[in-house]
Design brief:
Elements lengths: L9 E4 L4 E7 L2 E7 L10 E4 L11 E7 L5 E8 L5 E8 L10 E6 L1 E2 L5 E4 L7 E8 L5 E8 L10 E7 L3 H4 L3
Antiparallel strand pairs: 1-2, 2-3, 3-4, 5-6, 6-7, 7-8, 9-11, 10-11, 11-12, 12-13
Length: about 170
C-alpha cells in the first residue's frame, strides 16, 4: 500500500447497503455491499474518463442517498488551474444505471475538501452543492447551486463566500 494513490473515495449508507464511489484510471466507479463491507458486488462504471483527471491526488467524489433511494454523486478533478470541472450524476435504480453526467462548474476549482452535496432528508427533490472556484478578481469564492427537482435542473450558481487566495498563497516560491 505504500505506493497506492488516493482515488477520491466516498461512502454512504442507503439504509440497507454500504455504497462506495471512487475515481480510478477507468473513470468514476460505483459498488455496493449488503453486509457492511464484508463482500462487494461487481464494480460499475458511472462515468468514463471525461469525469476524471489524470492527477491521482486530485480526484474528488461525494456520494449521498436521498430518502427516495436515489443515489447522487458529485465527481470532479483538479487537472490544473483553469482545467477543472464538477459533474453531477444520479441513479434512480440503486446504481444499476446512471443518468448522463451534468457539468455543474468548470474553471479553476479549489480542491481542498472537494465539492460537497447535500440532500434534504424531508424532501428528496431538494439538493444543494457547494464548491470553491476562482472568481473574477483572482481569489477563490464559495459557490452554491440548488436543485428543486432531484437534480434534473440546477439554479444558477450563487456566491456565498470569499476564501481569498486559498492554498495558493502557500504554494508560491519564496
Amino acid at each position: 500500500g505504500a505506493t497506492w494513490a488516493p482515488l477520491g473515495l466516498s461512502v454512504a449508507w442507503d439504509g440497507i447497503r454500504l455504497l462506495a464511489a471512487w475515481m480510478d484510471y477507468r473513470g468514476l466507479m460505483f459498488d455496493s455491499s449488503s453486509d457492511g463491507g464484508g463482500t462487494w458486488g461487481q464494480d460499475r462504471m458511472v462515468c468514463g474518463r471525461e469525469c476524471t483527471t489524470d492527477i491521482p491526488d486530485n480526484r474528488l467524489t461525494n456520494i449521498a442517498v436521498a430518502s427516495d433511494d436515489t443515489i447522487h454523486i458529485l465527481s470532479g478533478g483538479l487537472a490544473g488551474l483553469g482545467n477543472s470541472a464538477v459533474y453531477y450524476i444520479r441513479s434512480a435504480d440503486g446504481g444499476e444505471t446512471w443518468d448522463p453526467p451534468q457539468m455543474l462548474a468548470t474553471g479553476a476549482l479549489y480542491g481542498l475538501g472537494g465539492p460537497r452535496l447535500a440532500v434534504n432528508p424531508a424532501n428528496p427533490s431538494e439538493l444543494s452543492v457547494v464548491y470553491a472556484i476562482k472568481g473574477p478578481n483572482g481569489t477563490f469564492q464559495v459557490e452554491a447551486r440548488s436543485s428543486e427537482n432531484g437534480g434534473e435542473t440546477w439554479q444558477d450558481p450563487q456566491v456565498i463566500g470569499d476564501m481569498g487566495v486559498g492554498c495558493l498563497q502557500y504554494l508560491r516560491p519564496q
